[in-house]
Structure formats: C-alpha cells, structure tokens
Known about the structure:
It is a single chain. This protein has 377 residues and is mainly β. It has two domains: 59-99 and 261-376, Immunoglobulin-like (Sandwich), CATH 2.60.40.10; 108-251. The protein has helices spanning 9-22, 45-55, 108-112, and strands at residues 99-102, 122-131, 134-143, 149-151, 156-161, 164-165, 170-172, 183-185, 191-198, 207-214, 221-229, 244-246, 250-251, 258-261, 267-269, 274-276, 281-289, 294-295, 301-307, 312-318, 334-335, 341-348, 354-362, 369-376. Strands 2, 3, 7, 9, 12 and 13 form a six-stranded mixed beta sheet that branches. A hairpin with a 2-residue loop joins strand 5 and strand 6. The chain is elongated and about 80 Å long.
Amino acid sequence: MTMVDNQDPMDQRLRDYGQRWRRVLPPPSGVDIEGLSARPPTRSTWWWVSAAAAVSAVIVGAQMTGSHPEEAAPSSESVRPGDVVPWAPLVATHPRIPSRTIPATPDPLAAAEAPLCRARDLRPESRKGAAAGTAFLNVRLTLSGDSPCRVEGFPDIRPMNNGQRVDIPIERVADDSTYHGPVLVADGQPALLRLGWASDWCTAAVGSDTIEVQLARGDDVLTFDGFGRSQSCNGDPGSGPTPIMVWAFQPERTRPEHVRSGYTSMRVSGDLNLTASPGEQVRFLVTLTAPEDVVLDPCPDYTITQHGAGVTQAQRFALNCADVPYKDPEGRPYLPANTPVPFAMQTTAGSDSARKLSWQLAVPGNSAAVGGQLTLV
C-alpha cells in the first residue's frame, strides 16, 4: 500500500511512543503481559500493524500491591477520562519549566527611603500572652503621624518599674524571620515588635510595669505596658532573672520571595501507607488536581523517594503525559481545571524495616507532595 505524505497524527504519536519505550529498561517479571490487549483495527491494515507494534512496547503498572487490591491498568490505547493513567518507567528529561520569581512583600527598598520613626509618629498597643513557661509581649505599632516612617533591626529596650530602670538582662533572638530589612509604618501598614520573658528562675521578685524603646535619638523614647511583676519561684534557688528576649521589627503582613510556575498550586493526593516485602514491586496511585487548566508541555519529571535508616533512595522519572486522556486543541495533553487525574506509580521496596515514602513533582516553586509509611515485612 502506498503511504501518503500527510501521515496520520495518531500513527505518528504511537510510533514516537514506541521509540521512547525501546530506550527504557525491560519490565519487571511481575508485570502481567497477558493482560495487555491490542486495539481493534479501525483503519487500514498497515495502520493496525504499526499501532499493534507500538502498543506491545507499552508496559503498564496501575494495579496496587501490599495492603491494596490489585486492579488491571488500562492499556495506553484505551485510556479515557476518569481512567488511571498507566505507569511507565520513562527516562527523566529534566525539562526547563517556565517560571517567574515573585519579590518579597513589602519591598524593603520602599521602607529604606522613609525617615526613621519618632515616638510621636507611632501608637503602640501591647498584648500579653504566654506559652511553654514564657510570657510574651506582642506590640503593634501603627502610624499616628502625618507621613510614613520606618523602624528597623533590633530595638534598644529598657525595662522600667515605677519610673526606674530594672536590672534585667536583654537578649537578641537569632533572626529566623522570613522578612529582612527596614519596616515601613504607614496607613494600614503596622509594624510588629515581639518580646519574651521565660519564668524558669528563682530569685528576688522583680517587676516591669513599662518598657521603653529608644528610637531615632537617645531622648526620643516610645513607652508601652510591660510584663508586670515576675512570677513566683519557678527554678533553682538563686537563679535568674532570665533575660528579656527581643526580636527584630517585622511587618504585620509579609510574604517572602518565592518562585511560581504553572504547577505551583497543583494539589497532590494519594495513599502511600503501604506494606511490602524487601525487593517487592510497590504500586500506588497519585492523583493530580489543577486549580486551572495546566498544559503538560513540557512534560514534567517527578521523584519517588524512600527514606530509611540513614539511607535515602530517590528515583526520578518523566511523567506519563502521552497517556493523559485530555488534549487541548493543539493536541497537547493537559490537566483540566478541578478534575482529579490519577496516575499509577511503581517503585521497588528497600531492605529496611520501615521507610518513609514520598512522591513530588520536580518543578520550580512546587512544594505540593504526598507521603506515607512503607512498612516492610
């Protein structure tokens, strides 16, 4: 039969798919080859032969093992919306996924251009709290002046009682915040100051009815309510007082710099709490749900990781995008908005008595993952 130049698109896709499979390792011995079926002929004889050859190279592993019943996965030729996308050990391609970096908010550069705040520019409101034997003061600083101003770094605080300085040490807490830099105080943009005072000490009682914060100049002082009188003896006799801990100024609302891609909001679900024997093929399902249409072009990689006793076993594969049953007008596979799409997955159980098992898309800015416990028997 003479073949025409405008080759059937489905035929070409199957040929390409067969070539991809010839580059991968042979299937594990546990795969049910008898369960695979060829697609009935619906076109001319030469098309059917080429389709059957391509299908014979497709190895599927959608059935569950361990504590889950096994289900025969559909072949790549019969995957329909709602079916499980069959597993395939496709070589990772490490594609470059388009992404962009979102700067931190608020912008520290905007705060740096504002003048330093004076006491008259700020209205402090302190609230007391306690946790794990530590009293806290959370101070909210709103703008009372006419123009925005800035506070920055660790403030110079002085505990006071009845107008006199109290001899309580001060300790700056290591800066583990997500925001670094000066903080702008403007309408609707308060700054926050946090103080803590542990109670695990026992010596003569002291009190701090007010706290003074030195601002732009030595004589420019902001005052707010302090911790009050110290608690009763709560430690070794003669110990203390413990230092008052001080954190750096922070914006009330902040978001660190982060990376976004089309996969950033992807939801991943699945039951990875499984039981298997060492060396056994472990099969499970992972379901991807996109908040909006996501075109799988380029097709992303994913990782399956087992964390054992001092050992990490990680595998990286390309997602089986070719068998996703949803195609856009250009013929590209995609995940429809709010439509769960299940994918069959497979890995080999390690040799430790128990392992943490996790699955994650290997894309920029993606923290969505699913995990569980792989118990070996």
